[in-house]
């Protein structure tokens, strides 16, 4: 039986490509929005607003010396970084739209 969650979330590995072409990875806990809420945010064409709305927690973020950041510091850092916002937005769209589009097109 398919179980429909009232507030579904997913835990995803996010790979960020920085402006200097270096890469970094972290884990993000993302809320899956209703279709209406997702459509509204897409129509606003504001990736930062989408990412602020869906990102509930991040893990695996450290400071420049490699010391782990607190949950609040890590989330604030990710939500203020353009490269992180782009990576989370792309992964979220892949999760909610891309997988279902590929699966349904095989039928």
Architecture blueprint of SSEs:
Blueprint: E1 9-17, E2 23-31, H1 35-44, H2 47-54, E3 55-59, H3 71-79, H4 82-105
Antiparallel strand pairs: 1-2, 2-3
Helix pairs in contact: 2-4
How far is it from the N-terminal to the C-terminal residue, by CA? 20 Å
Strand percentage lies at 15-25%
* Total helical segments: 4
Number of strands: 3
Low-confidence stretches: none
Task: Please tell me what the overall shape is.
Answer: globular
Name the helix and strand elements from N-terminus to C-terminus, one letter apiece.
Answer: EEHHEHH
The averaged pLDDT comes out at 88
- How many individual domains? 1
Task: Report on the architecture of this protein.
The structure is a single chain. The chain has 107 residues and is of the alpha+beta class. It has one domain (9-105). Helix content is 48%, strand content 21%. The protein contains 4 helices and 3 strands. The chain has helices spanning 35-44, 47-54, 71-79, 82-105, and strands at 9-17, 23-31, 55-59. The chain has a 3-stranded antiparallel sheet with strand order 1-2-3. A hairpin with a 5-residue loop joins strand 1 (9-17) and strand 2. The mean pLDDT is 88.
């Amino acid at each position: 039986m398919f179980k429909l969650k009232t507030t579904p979330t997913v835990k995803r590995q996010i790979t960020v490509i920085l402006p200097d072409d270096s890469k970094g990875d972290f884990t993000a806990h993302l809320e899956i929005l209703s279709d209406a809420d997702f459509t509204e945010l897409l129509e606003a064409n504001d990736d930062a607003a989408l990412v602020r709305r869906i990102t509930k927690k991040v893990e695996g973020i450290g400071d420049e010396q490699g010391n782990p950041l607190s949950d609040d510091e890590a989330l604030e850092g990710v939500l203020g970084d353009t490269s992180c916002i782009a990576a989370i937005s792309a992964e979220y769209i892949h999760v909610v739209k891309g997988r279902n589009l590929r699966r349904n097109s095989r039928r």
